[in-house]
Amino acid sequence: MTLTGHDLAVWCVGILPDVGIMLTGSADKTVRIWKTGKCTAVLKGHTDAVRGIAVIDSENFLSCANDASVRRWNVSGECIGTYYGHENYIYSMALMPNGADWVTSGEDRSVRIWEKNAVVQTIYLPAISVWSVCVLENGDVAAAASDGNIRIFTKDPARVASAELQEIFEEELNKTSLAAQQELGGVKLSDLPGPEALYEPGKKDGQTKMVRDGDKVSVHSWSMAEQKWSKIGDVVGAAGGSESTSGKKLYQGKEYDYVFDIEIDEPKATLKLPFNVSDDPFMAAQQFIHKHDLSQYYLEEIANHIIKNTGGQTLGLGAGGNADPLTGGSSYSAGGVQDGGTSSGLSADPFTGSGAYTTGSGGGDIPALGGSNAPPDPWMQGAYRTDGGIENMEVEQSNPYFPQTEFVLFDQPLKAEPLVNKLKEFNAQVEESKRLEDSDIETLPNLALQEAENPEAAARLLKVLSWPDSNIFPALDLTRLVLLHPFNKKYILAKEFLDKLFSVCLNHVNKESSIPNQMLALKVLANVFSSLEGEEFLLTYRESVISRIFENLFPVVNDNKNVQIGASTVMLNYAVSLAKRPKEEEGQVQALSVLGVNFITFITDWEARFRTMVAIGTLLKASTDNLEYAKTLDVREGVRGWKVLEGPTKATECAQHIIKLL
Fold first, then answer.
1. What's the chain's Rg over C-alpha atoms?
2. Which of 101, 162, 466, 492 has the fewest CB atoms within 10 Å, measured from its CB?
């Protein structure tokens, strides 16, 4: 049996055998309840990936997540309680033998024992990540950590390790170095207390305290069970230097490799994020979010901003082994973090391997928005500007971005000679029954370039669309422009041709296809909207097209910008079409769902993000019902996550208009 329903990776499973219920937790931040192979409930509450499930009895269970929380649920889908005790991601959990208490492990170097829904003991390990924890039949707790070791802890004095082994463990723990910015928080060395501070009892289990001893700083943790402070590591880099002597950035008296400016819209502020290359970018982002009480939606955006702006350096502990054994990557973040590398995005000619041929990657010309006094075209990257900066937005601004009323088309001209040469090359590779005469191939570009009807060439183009997948992208690129031709588009829109074209395009809206085929299939679909017949055709098959995009295309391979722009343009054109039709409620809901969830999660290119937001805004303006539905999808928080980063002005302003609506 295969159960499908989660939008992202499934991380954990639980079984309630007495009642025949299965539980699953996922990176899509939900827990699902299954019975007889069907999903009976989707439980929402966690704000990040769900990593562990522990079944209490036939009616209740627990879940833990990367949002550093534990939640208690009943089988009816109600959240009974939410509990906090960790300082970072919780990776694993298990019930204690009494069936009421539990143990957790996480990214904060610790195993934590819970009784009566609260942490009563914190056990630190000499490793950053404690990936998994389990409880043995005798009540001992086993923990697996990122340093490659499994350690077992017990309450039974008869099973306690020898004094020698305990001394080795304490020595490993004491040698563990903590990054200064994680513990010191900008406090000057002279402001820290001396060893006498350890005579004062702690207030809660796991409380940490920094103590100065000469020019060194150590960190100690309070144990409620033992009623004493235990050293858990040394703070390095506390003394610091100056930017001129070390080449580093100074922030609050301390040295960092980088200090980033992060713009926040609510409340409006520019916050400093200090960062060292030895840090995990996702941990740094998570700590920044907790420190400033920001939405979890910003996690991936801030982390990717760090990765992008650190010049390709190796980040994190390097040889320290802080790799997620489940993903092979560093600390896990929800939403399937993509490779930070750049993609060529077809900057090289797919026909010749050189720069001689381009396939409309610029996104096409967009009709001017507004009247004669409208600002420069906001679609063209960097063209739109406002007189004031982000601090001067108190004055009510006009909205030139949405609702969009005209379709966005890809009309960049093609180069006939490279196109013909590539078609001839591919023509020699296909089976003889599908070949064309070279003289016929030479006339194909006339379909788009000459102002005359050419039914013969259209018939030949249809034949080329039956070529193998690896040879088909020149025909798709030519078809993209013929769809905009005043005389020859009617041949493309004829039933036989359109059915074949639609089948080919839908087949290549798939991350398994080549990047050129993906990109050009999306551009063709966007241009089909240019005529009323094409628009009606795509509305008829709306559900198939939109489902194909979010099910088969995401996450986009290598975050290719042209594929992202193509997909967001198809969705924008659907939004324009659906917004004109008040009775298309089902279509508006489907489009808004995909834009507000899938696109906000996976789109990383700023032009594609801008088009996504214009599409969302267009649908929001279509009806008050859409506004209310968008609120249930947390679209506002998703858009805020984009706005907080340094994107183009047009994207920031478009996001601001959406935020005001919601």
1. 29
2. 162
Phi/psi of residue 169, nearest 5 degrees: -60, -45
Task: Please compute the mean of the pLDDT values over residues 31-37 and round it to a whole number.
Answer: 90
Which range is least confidently modeled, 104-108, 132-136, 220-224, 247-251?
247-251
Q: Report the first-to-last Cα separation within the chain, whole angstroms.
A: 41
Total length of the chain: 662
Q: Where are any strands of DSSP class E within 498-634?
A: none
For the CA atoms of 350, 352, 355, 358, the dihedral, rounded to the nearest 10 degrees, stands at -50
Determine the pLDDT at residue 333. Answer: 39
Instruction: Report the C-alpha gap between 642 and 170 in whole angstroms.
Output: 45
Q: Tell me, what's the pLDDT at 180?
A: 36
CA atoms of 561 and 62, how far apart (whole Å)? 40
Phi-psi sector, 364: left (phi>0), alpha (psi -120 to 50), beta? left
Residue with the two structure tokens 């609702």: 403
Q: Packing angle between helix 635-643 and helix 649-661, nearest 10 degrees? A: 150
Q: What is the DSSP string of 376-388?
A: S-TTSTT----SS
Tokens representing residue 475 in the block: 């025909």
Report whether 231 contacts 178 (CB < 8 A). Answer: no
**Quick one: which of 382, 373, 478, 390 has its CA closest to 436?**
478
How far is 135 from 336, CA to CA, in rounded Å?
Answer: 30
Ordered DSSP codes for 235-267: EES-S---HHHHSSEEETTEEESEEEEEEEETT
Mean predicted confidence (pLDDT) in 463-490: 89
Which two tokens mark 394? 């108190």
- 96 three-state secondary structure: coil
pTM of this prediction?
A: 0.46
At 531, list the tokens. Answer: 């005529």
Distance CA 219, CA 235 (A): 7
DSSP string, 435-499: ---HHHHHHTTHHHHSSS--HHHHHHHHHHTTS-GGG-HHHHHHHHHHTT-TTTHHHHTSHHHHH
User: Could you read off the pLDDT of 329-350 as tens digits, one per residue?
Assistant: 444 333 333 333 333 333 334 4
CA dihedral 90, 93, 98, 100 (to 10 degrees): 50
Q: What share of the chain is helix, strand, coil (3-state, %, to 5)?
A: 40, 20, 40
**CA geometry: angle at 79 spanning 77 and 82, to 5°?**
155
Tell me the CB-side half-sphere exposure of residue 29, using CA atoms within 13 A: 17
Using DSSP's 3-state secondary structure scheme, residue 24 falls into strand
SS3 14: strand
Cβ distance 274 to 256 under 8 Å?
yes
Residue type, 511: K
Q: What is the dihedral of CA 478, 481, 482, 483, to 10 degrees?
A: 130
Q: List the structure tokens of 315.
A: 């980040």
pLDDT digits (tens, 9 = 90+) for 265-300: 655 667 888 888 777 777 788 788 777 777 766 777
Give a three-class secondary structure readout of 531-560: CHHHHHHHHHCHHHHHHHHHHHHCCCHHHC
Q: Residue 523 in contact with residue 360, Cβ under 8 Å?
A: yes
